[in-house]
Design a protein that fits this description.
DUF4239 domain-containing protein; 78% helix; 8 helices
Length: 246
């Protein structure tokens, strides 16, 4: 939080310093008035186009973050259902399923979430644990009809867990397209730069305008950066759904 605030203040102060330098060495000239009409039109178009880029990027990363949260909730809920359903299996099979699902959740919480926060690949271990759990959940030879139905429901929940896990991995590996990042950075620089084309006579007013715009654009870009990494940073999706159930 403090780092983000420091970046916003730093960019605002840099923009303010540029305004002071402009007014010190290139003061407004009344003869530039006809040219300002064109500058105002171009500045407005740049601002509108940049707002579209900001909106597109924000919607994209917000959808990714929401999907990551939904996949994590679904995966944790399915794991919880598997453990509850294990009580309806034959005793030996129930122990295997319970120990298997607890080992899987422990691996997800202790290994995979820290790896996703660091941007590291998840590896194969989680899939191996899930495969072993699916094998242990197959209907036992001595199962009663009720236990057979329970085993089928366990396998169905494992299918849901499998799909949610794949979605979580995809969310961790995804990210905003490089073209959008280029548009965000270049558009922000252009939008602020066009503020210097206006011959505002009062330097204080000009400083406030440029600082406010710079701070807002910097905040939006940093927010998009945070949301673009759904398992990292202040707004990260964490392992709370798993620890709540287990």
């Amino acid at each position: 939080m403090l780092e983000t605030l420091a970046i916003i203040i730093g960019v605002s102060l840099l923009a303010a310093a540029c305004v002071v330098v402009k007014h010190r060495f290139w003061p407004p000239d009344p003869d530039d008035e006809p040219r300002e009409d064109v500058a105002e039109y171009i500045s407005m178009m740049v601002g509108v186009l940049y707002a579209l880029v900001l909106g597109l990027a924000l919607v994209s990363v917000w959808d990714t973050r929401s999907a990551a949260d939904e996949h994590t909730q679904t995966e944790a809920s399915a794991a919880h259902q598997v453990r509850l359903l294990s009580d309806g299996l034959p005793q030996r099979q129930a122990r295997e399923v319970r120990s298997g699902i607890e080992a899987y959740v422990s691996h997800v919480v202790d290994v995979e979430f820290p790896a996703m926060a660091a941007g590291d690949p998840l590896g194969q271990r989680g899939w191996d644990l899930l495969s072993a759990l699916r094998h242990a959940s197959r209907t036992a030879a001595d199962a009663t009809p009720s236990q057979h139905m329970t085993a089928q429901e366990v396998l169905a929940q494992l299918g849901t867990l499998d799909d949610a896990r794949r979605g979580r991995e995809s969310d961790a590996d995804g990210g905003l397209a490089p073209a959008l990042w280029v548009g965000l950075i270049m558009g922000g620089v252009l939008t602020v730069a066009f503020m210097f084309m206006f011959g505002v006579e009062r330097s204080y007013t000009h400083v406030v305008m440029v600082m406010g715009l710079s701070a807002l654009i910097t905040f939006m870009v940093l927010l998009i950066h945070e949301l673009d990494r759904p398992f990292t940073g202040m707004l990260a999706v964490d392992a709370t759904p798993f620890t709540r159930y287990f």
